[in-house]
Amino acid sequence: MTPLRFLLARTMRNEPMLATLSAPLSDLHAELSGRQVALVGNARALAQAQQGAQIDAADLVVRINRAPMPDPASHGTRTDWLGLAVRLPAADRARLAPRRILWMSPKRKRLDWQTAHSPGFYLHPLADYAALTAELGAPPTTGAMLIGLILSAPVAGLTLHGFDFFASQSLSGRRRAAQVPHDFAAEAAWVARAAERDARLRLA
């Protein structure tokens, strides 16, 4: 797709055209199959933990948005996949160097050319976003969407690191829970229910 066609598709919200840039979900499922996955959230509390070695020992490490990593001891060093809902500055793109970028946000106008044409790029379907929004009663976080996506695959296990549902706020900003459009209590309850029915899911 040429840059002009991409710009037009993004501006006109031409979802079928944008979807042609995406790897199929089956590719993601194949890569996830049988693997232990670490999903690393951006809770400030993770910086006080010593989970870095456990994160790096996972078969696949997935991080979120700008993915601050203040210390390898707490956060590890690897980034295999990156789930995005924001534009990624060049410095963060170089620092993280993910093998695959997943655009999770329904806000397609934020999607940039470089991200959309990166190797293994995946565009999260709007229908999946809408379904989770209805289930939670509020727009889901990127983390919640990634949990749902990963558990839809035949993974061996999914461990959540740095998820405290905004109790300690986020390393990537200064906003408080009331200043963001998510229902963290609903997400915490949703994750707890998921963990009860699916033994593959655990919080570190």
Set out the fold topology.
Layout: H1 3-11, H2 15-19, H3 25-32, E1 36-40, H4 52-57, E2 60-64, H5 72-75, E3 81-84, H6 90-96, E4 100-103, H7 113-116, E5 122-123, H8 126-136, H9 142-151, E6 157-161, H10 184-197, E7 201-203
Parallel strand pairs: 1-2, 1-6, 2-3, 3-4, 4-5, 6-7
Describe the overall structure.
By secondary structure, this protein is α/β, with parallel strands linked by helices. It is built from ten helices and seven strands. The mean pLDDT is 93. Strands 5-4-3-2-1-6-7 form a seven-stranded parallel β-sheet. Helices cover 38% and strands 14% of the residues. The chain has a single domain (35-203), classed as sialyltransferase cstii, chain A (Alpha-Beta Complex). Helix 4 (52-57) links the parallel strand 1 and strand 2.
Mean pLDDT: 93
Largest sheet composition: 7 strands, parallel
Question: Which architecture name does CATH use?
Answer: Alpha-Beta Complex
Order of helices and strands: HHHEHEHEHEHEHHEHE
Distance between the termini: 41 Å
CATH topology: sialyltransferase cstii, chain A
List keywords for this structure.
sialyltransferase cstii, chain A; single chain; seven-stranded parallel sheet; globular; alpha/beta
What's a concise summary of this model?
With 204 residues, the protein is α/β, with parallel strands linked by helices. Helices cover 38% and strands 14% of the residues.
